[in-house]
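Kindly inspect what follows.
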Amino acid sequence: MSLKAVSLSEQIAEHLSERIVRGDLAPGEKLPEAELAKELDVSTNSLREAFRLLEKRHLIRLQPRRGARVCEVTESEVRDLYNFLFLLLSHLAAQAARDWKPGEIEDLAMMLPELERLYRNADMPGAHQVAFRFVEMATARFARNRYLADDIEDLVPLLKRFSYIALQEDTTEFDMSLKIFQRLLENVLARNAEQAAADIREYGDNQCRLVLRAIAKRDAA
């Protein structure tokens, strides 16, 4: 493929990120710089900058004189990610419930029917994308703290990777997610900050269990 546009390194990083999330680039796989640059029709300098972005997002590791490799998926990394990121997201949910203003919540609420339609049509990749668009929009709108927003933004790609593993493990996970998502919106609209935070934590705990189950199966195979 050819990538020629502004913010080329970001486009490269997004492209490789999607391949890592879907498992097309497997855990531990080496990312050969010269071959990838030729495949994507980009300079090695642009690719190296994309690698730095992916390392910041915890999707690859850069090792001196050994190049780039896709990060492994381990039990400790899964637990660490869900424990920390969902602490941040629960704070975000509570803040949204306390502080939302008219015009800030309606378009987010309209994503629920879209998610339900995609789920009924068994379009799990599409539903996955919409769910993360919701997270990105809510973060930009309600974080109101650049450090909180930056931390969530940097960790969301890794959450995409793990949540995709959860979907592969059990597609009914999305049905549970929809129910929690609906409760979350109801509690945000009702300005019930404590319960909105609890909804997010429940979502994270449920998904974390599925990812850990998938890892256990992989390790036992």
